[in-house]
C-alpha cells in the first residue's frame, strides 16, 4: 500500500497535468470507487469544474476545485492515475475517467478495486476520515511535544501506534520499521515505556526516513503518460531492515528477524533494537 512518500510523488506528478485544466465530463464507471454518490451526480457536480490545486493530507490526494468542492482520492493498494489522449485506448480496470479541456483524459485504474473517491461539497466541512487524522509528520504541527504526549498515553506497541493514522500520520509498514530501526528501539515495546531520550530519537527518525524516501524518489517511478501503467519500481534498494529477513544488519551484522505482529510483518535487528 502506498505510504506518504509514494502519495507525495503521485501528487507532484499530477500537478503539471491537471492544475489549471477544466473537467468537461466525469465518468464513474465503477460505482464502488465513489460509493457515496450516484454516477449522474458525480458527473453533474464535476462537469465544467476548474482544478485549481492538487494537494495531500496523509495518504489522501486532494483535488481542489474552483467551485469550493474537493475531490479526495485514496489509492489503497493498486489505485493509479494515467494521463491519456482522447485517441488512446482505455487500459484495463479504468474505473473513473475525467475528460479534460486539453484533449486528454485523466484515468483512475484500480485492479483490486479498493481505491476510493469522495466529493466534498464544502471544503470547510471535511469528513470525519480527514478531520481525525494526526498532524502532518513533516509539518510544524507535528511537534516533539505532541509526539512525546502521544507515546505516553498509549499502551500499544510502538509499531502498532506508528501505524495508527489518527496518532502518527503517513507511516505504513515500510517506513514504520525503518524509523524504528534508525532510532534503535524495539518495535514490540509498549509506547508508554519508551524513555524520553529514545522517544526523541524516534521522532527525528520518522521525519528523517520520510524526507529520505521523498528525496530518493520513494519506491516509485511515475510517468502518468505511459500507457502501460504509471508506476515503476525504483531500481535502487535503500531499505535498512524492511524485507531483509535473514540478511546481516547494516550496523552490526546480526541477522535481521521478521515477526508477525498485529497481522503485519515486522522486521528488526535483535541486537541494535534491544531497547
What's the arrangement of secondary structure elements?
Blueprint: H1 4-18, E1 22-28, H2 39-46, E2 49-57, E3 60-65, E4 70-74, E5 79-85, E6 94-100, E7 104-110, E8 116-120, H3 128-131, H4 144-152, H5 158-162, H6 173-183, H7 196-215, E9 220-222, E10 231-233, E11 257-261, E12 264-268
Antiparallel strand pairs: 1-2, 1-6, 2-3, 3-4, 4-8, 5-7, 6-7, 9-10, 11-12
Helix pairs in contact: 1-7, 4-7, 6-7
Brief write-up:
This protein is 26% helix and 25% strand. It is built from 7 helices and 12 strands.
- Compute the separation of the termini in Å: 29 Å
Q: Which fold name is given in CATH as the topology of the largest domain?
A: N-terminal domain of MutM-like DNA repair proteins
Strand order of the largest sheet: 5-7-6-1-2-3-4-8
Counting helices, strands and paired strands, the structural category is alpha+beta
- Let me know the CATH homologous superfamily of the largest domain: MutM-like, N-terminal
What overall geometry do the principal axes of the alpha carbons give? elongated
Mean pLDDT: 92
**Which blocks of ≥5 consecutive residues have pLDDT under 50?**
none
- The topology string of helices and strands comes to HEHEEEEEEEHHHHHEEEE
Assign the CATH architecture of the largest domain. Alpha-Beta Barrel
Work out the strand percent.
25-35%
Biggest sheet record: 8 strands, antiparallel
| Portion in helices | 25-40%
Radius of gyration, Cα only, in angstroms?
20 Å
Number of helical stretches of at least 4 residues = 7
Give the total of domains: 2
Identify the CATH class of the largest domain. Alpha Beta
